[in-house]
Amino acid sequence: MASFTNYRNSNTNRSQDDPSKDLRSNIRESRLIQPEQWQSPEIREKFDKGSIDFAEVHSILQQLGIKVQKFELDTILEKHDRNKDKKLSKEEFENLYVKLRAEKDPGSTWGRTVKPTAGGVDRFVTRRDATDDPDAHPSSVEQQQEASGPYHSVLVEERVWTSNWLNQLLADDSHLNLHANPIDSTDPQALYKRCQDGILLCKLINIAVPKTIDERAINLNLSKQDIFRQGENLELAINSARGIGCKVVNIHPENISKAVPHLVMGLLWQIIRIQLTSEINLKHVPGLVLLLRDGETPEDLLKLSPEELLLRWVNYQLKRSQYSGKSVTNFSGDIKDSEAYTYLLSVIAPANTKPPVGLTPLKEDDLRRRAELMLKEADKIKARAHITPEDVVKGNPRLNFAFVANLFNTYPTLDLPTEQVPEPGLIIEETREEKTYRNFINSLGLEPHVNYLYSDLCDGLIILQLYDIIRPNTVDWSKIYKTFNAIKERFQKLNNCNFTVDYAVEPLHFKMTGIGGPDILEGNKTLTLGLVWQIMRAYTLSILQKLARSTTPIADKDIINWANQKLKSANKKTVLTNFQDHSLSDSMLICDLIDAIKPGSIQYNLLKTSGTSEAKMDNALYAISMSRKSGARIYALPEDIVETKQKMLLTVFACLMASDMNVAKN
After folding, report:
1. What are the residues whose beta carbons fall under 8 Å from the beta carbon of 556, sequence distance 6 or more?
2. How far apart are CA 322 and CA 312, in angstroms?
3. For residues 62 and 71, what is the distance between their CA atoms, to the nearest angstrom?
4. How far apart are CA 583 and CA 555, in angstroms?
5. Is residue 256, in this structure, part of any structural domain at all?
6. What pLDDT is recorded for position 22?
7. Contact, 298 vs 292, CB < 8 A?
8. Cα–Cα distance between 391 and 395 in angstroms, integer?
9. Start and end of every Calponin-homology (CH) domain (predicted)?
10. What average pLDDT does the segment 303-310 reach?
11. Gap between the terminal Cα atoms of the chain
């Protein structure tokens, strides 16, 4: 169980007596984002007539790197069309771009977009998802202005917290040496600079999801001038983050190497969130069944997001205390007064805590002072986790979520009687296949986030969005229900699911025998998995087709022919016959192919030839890590290679082929 004691150094605690420290908690660090396409002649010409029609908006947004489904634009455009003439002026379009950039760019969830005013004084837009504090003054913004246009911001308190969290989490790593040389949380650039060589990101991913990256694949002991090998590490980190379900649609190695704050923070938070919540499940905490409501089964817990699970846990514990306030429904406004936290700490603290954790903070009327006293109670059980009184009083949702997640990980206090503890084989948990597909979908940046395949795909919307990614303009969104009426909900969702089947048959040519709309609606596991696999396969092959600029779909035999030609040209003796060949289980052929794509990249002395299951797993982990390092967007796991899972091996070779095409193109 991951737990964290309060890591104290000169960077961790802000002085209560220094008013400048309080001001600093309001500061946002900003960085301008100016897409090169924004000034392209093609786009400028569109506005020569003064405005553009609604029909032109979607294609322009795509040129600017904003992926948005057409059905989403229906209501969005109406809100930005001030004159109600079905046209957007340049100013209206810029406002729309700013909004969508903030929402669609995964890194920008750390800040809302801001646009400089004509007079050159930057006008701040409060980040609604970061704080409830409405006060934000231009003088409290740390700016990095490079050109005119929109920019993103990062809350200083979140950067400070992240720096201190990483200092503790990775303190024992000999390569990072954070114990002796911690990230300086007072330096606005220190955190971003420490991420530039990719090593910290790779190490963090391995803590979040152990054995995601083979450390033999990481380029260690780098000099600042070794840009190429740093870039390889960043490629490895980003593709590995994609493999564990992070949204990295607009995050590239150059963004990290250039220390773009909102993108670095966006990636770091996603990985940290996974790390914080990796053990909030029935496998690690069977006592979560105590949080079930009437009529629910253990499987219903899989449908909940980590935030929803933690809120249930908080309220369950509060019912065990003397707390008489309202239920906690969020990690912002509902916890600002520290009352719920004080009672929560008192009920989860071990009985032998010395001095005991109590309710003394509630005697204090000043909320900031009360928050500090509450956190001192948390200190008694070593669970403060770097949060500050300001973070509590302002209701910062991310930092309060992290605080509560750490409390759960340290003191879940959900003990079941021995006779009620289920046998390991009877615990309901996500399968390896389900997790792979879920991570694949989430990495594409679709909304809403998928927590459980069967419940989150049952309205058809995620599946239909995937179709439009594979083959743009497949879906006629005017026929799709985006929101649901409580009375007609089942009918409306079934309508969507029927369209998922229709579009799968034509134009996508999926094999849909025996699969109907009701199967998707009801969450039929076998049939849903079968459909999602075809989506994943089609997505991978669509990328190949685009790279090859082919008018015909890429077939399995094309991938096999490419692999063998590549192996032959590099004088490799291995030959790929099919994706079911059990000889693939030792990963030797895959490593040969990687080395053919990037000569000299594989260290053959690291590969094991004993043929044992352990040796094969080590080779497979190395092969996947080196594939990702070479640029392949692989979702397969080492077990898929060792067990020669035909479906996932197809995606491995297809992704390597795409990586090779990218190398050739560049």
Report:
1. 579, 650
2. 17
3. 15
4. 22
5. yes
6. 40
7. yes
8. 6
9. 156-276, 304-412, 431-540, 553-661
10. 96
11. 45
For residues 510-523, give the mean pLDDT: 97
Tens of pLDDT, residue by residue over 555-593, are: 999 999 999 999 999 999 999 999 999 999 999 999 999
Q: Do 196 and 167 sit in the same domain of this protein?
A: yes
Percent of the chain with pLDDT over 70: 82
The answer to whether the CB of 553 falls within 8 A of the CB of 474 is no
Q: What is the CATH number of the domain that holds 290?
A: 1.10.418.10
587-607 pLDDT, tens digit each: 999 999 999 999 999 999 999
Residues 563 and 633 reside in one and the same domain = yes
Q: Is the pLDDT of residue 104 over 60?
A: no
Angle between helix axes 227-243 and 613-629 (nearest 10 degrees) is 120
One domain for residues 480 and 398: no
Range of the domain at 612: 556-664
Structure tokens at 408: 């759960």
Token pair 């046209």: residue: 87
Mark whether 263 and 295 lie in a shared domain: no
Q: Is the pTM of this model over 0.90?
A: no
- The number of folded domains in the chain is 5
Residues 518 and 568 in one domain: no
Long-range contacts of 516-525 (CB under 8 A, 24+ apart): 517/460, 518/494, 520/457, 520/458, 520/460, 520/463, 521/458, 521/459, 521/460, 521/490, 521/493, 521/494, 521/497, 522/458, 523/454, 523/455, 523/457, 523/458, 524/454, 525/454
Q: What is the CA radius of gyration of the chain?
A: 26
